[in-house]
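ok here's 6-phosphogluconate dehydrogenase, decarboxylating:
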Amino acid sequence: MAPLTRIGLAGLAVMGQNLALNIAEKGFPISVYNRTNSKVDETVARAKQEGDLPLYGFHDPELFVNSIQKPRVIIMLVKAGPPVDQTMKTLSVYMEKGDFIIDGGGEEGAHHGPSLMPGGSFEAYKYIEDILLKVAAQVPDSGPCVTYVGKGGSGNFVKMVHNGIEYGDMQLIAEAYDVLKSVGKLTNEELRQVFSEWNKGELLSFLIEITADIFGIKDDKGEGYLVDKVLDKTGMKGTGKWTVQQAAELSVAAPTIASSLDGRFLSGLKEERVEAAKVFKSSGVGDILADQAQGMNLIRAKSAEKGWDLKLGGLARIWKGGCIIRAVFLDRIKKAYDRNPDLTNLLVDSDFAKEIIERQSAWRRVVCLAINSGISTPGMSASLAYFDTYRRERLPANLVQAQRDYFGAHTYERIDVPGSFHTEWFKIAKQSKI
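and the structure:
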């Protein structure tokens, strides 16, 4: 009979299999279970092929649960919705008081080191902290990409917003591609060179890196490049929508993330090439910073509402590796929050503010170029509008509030006298016309 394992994992789709193998590779015996027996057998076979790893498969949920040492810890990686409830119902029958279920991303990260954002029971976190520190992505200058996020559902919320930021980043990159290709007439090889060059400096990131790779892939089913044969219809799993819904509920502006969602819904100058690429590189910092600022402000608002006391600098640190938005830029964001943990917005950090002021002309040129060329860039435009709105001391919202008071007696506040006021706008206007 096999010895009791340290941890269990239920759900052996791509991510589940790779995380299980990751844990076993780090020397932690693990039990695995899946509703479909073939997935269990497949995972066990992979473990043997990759070095006879300490991974044990079970077809029976009771045998699976009983194979784990107490207090049992089971990571659940199944599709959101009813499958989560069904799996919990199946396993909880055999679990005891004091056992833990961790409701857990992509294929490569799960196997070779993910960014982990655990929240909930601190006791549960400490019990498997040694495993998490080993399996998480390792970044040389900041260590394992894992930290205890906070109590309650804070870990899930942070992961959701991470995905919202990811939506925004991908939309901004797609818009840059559209303008460079449609206006600048760059070929795919030239686009590959541009994005490869961007990935050597301040824009170095996973998404920029894979974008350069994509432009270099030839179509294996015909002539030309594969990217040109991909249908322009973007799929989604719902996290972007949830992020925008939360932003609306918390009254937090997140226009870049929202526009990226709109972009997915709506999807159902030869001599100036080099210069255009340089301009885009300069404008990209502002776009990305606005996207990150919106995500961080959403997390900060939810943290305040729930009393989670989340550390935004710590989140930037664990996002530096093992996740889709990993980028060298995140180190600067971490340092901004290190300088001021109570920073109200990344846009007002002294270093970022100075840089954006210096680069804003390039940012505006890119948006104007797109508009004048009839190319839709909702992410870039929303990012710039976010910056322009945030930096204005006074906005035309005074007129909107006056309109609301006019037709609905919603009252308004004054800039010179405290309190709420209501004006009989219609009566005054009518009298003036007599």
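+1. The chain has three domains: 7-148, 156-391, 397-433.
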